[in-house]
Recover the amino acids of this structure.
């Protein structure tokens, strides 16, 4: 039967999430063709942005061309060293098999930060149009990415996140996080959390029921029932109004089934 979460559960779980505080969608993206990423680039005392607009657009085009040709080796070569450590061409190839064919793209905007640059693109794929945010370091290597899933089913987003974790697709799993969360929570950190969980629960078996159990104005709480070798437990996934994951609560002490103990006392005779 369906179950309800007590009214105070959502706020409590938000405070317990391993991914920490809430984050929002990227704001203030700069329109293309307006000059350098940071208007004060090079000014005394002003942080320099990682890439110029031209450099950022070139990096985005390189990555999207690799995606269009479905070249796993080239795509992997464009990763940052940090991403390469938790991925491989074989993992990328597995991911490509589940992706829709990319037909063309339009670069929309560029946003510069202190150490990374974010490029927004609209992709024309075999499954329709998708908006993508790509994050590059100062060498034009991919640090992370994020698809706009505002109109997607919330429970499906949470399920796809856990499925990506279970398949070792940690870069893909990280793409479901909001961009501010990605800055705080690396793909390597996701891998560590997942490995730590399986040391307690046994190896992953399958994802079971996925249920949105609470919804507020700007947050959604989804329970993902996950079966492991030794136990079945629930992962709590917190999403914002744009269906970006902003919190994940990996159970610290998985609930294990109680063992039945036969009574040793003599049976009463009538």
């Amino acid at each position: 039967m369906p179950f309800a979460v007590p009214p105070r559960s959502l706020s409590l779980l938000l405070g317990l999430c391993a991914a920490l505080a809430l984050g929002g969608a990227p704001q203030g993206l700069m329109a293309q063709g307006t000059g350098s990423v940071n208007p004060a680039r090079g000014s005394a005392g002003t942080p320099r942005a990682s890439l110029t607009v031209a450099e950022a657009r070139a990096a985005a085009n390189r990555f999207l061309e690799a995606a269009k040709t479905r070249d796993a080796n080239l795509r992997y070569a464009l990763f940052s060293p940090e991403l390469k450590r938790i991925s491989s061409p074989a993992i990328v190839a597995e991911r490509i098999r589940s992706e829709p064919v990319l037909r063309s793209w339009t670069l929309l905007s560029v946003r510069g930060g202190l150490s990374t640059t974010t490029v927004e693109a609209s992709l024309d794929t075999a499954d329709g149009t998708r908006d993508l945010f790509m994050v590059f370091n100062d060498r034009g290597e991919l640090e992370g990415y994020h698809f706009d899933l505002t109109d997607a089913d919330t429970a499906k987003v949470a399920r796809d996140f856990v499925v990506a974790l279970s398949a070792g697709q940690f870069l893909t799993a990280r793409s479901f996080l909001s961009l501010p969360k990605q800055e705080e929570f690396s793909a390597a950190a996701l891998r560590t959390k997942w490995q730590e969980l399986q040391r307690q629960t046994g190896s992953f078996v399958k994802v079971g029921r996925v249920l949105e159990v609470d919804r507020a104005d700007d947050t959604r709480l989804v329970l993902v029932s996950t079966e492991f070798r030794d136990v079945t437990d629930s992962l709590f996934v917190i999403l914002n109004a744009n269906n970006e994951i902003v919190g994940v609560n990996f159970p610290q002490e998985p609930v294990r089934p109680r063992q039945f103990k036969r009574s040793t006392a003599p049976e009463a005779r009538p």
Observations:
- Confidence is low (pLDDT under 50) at residues 1-47.
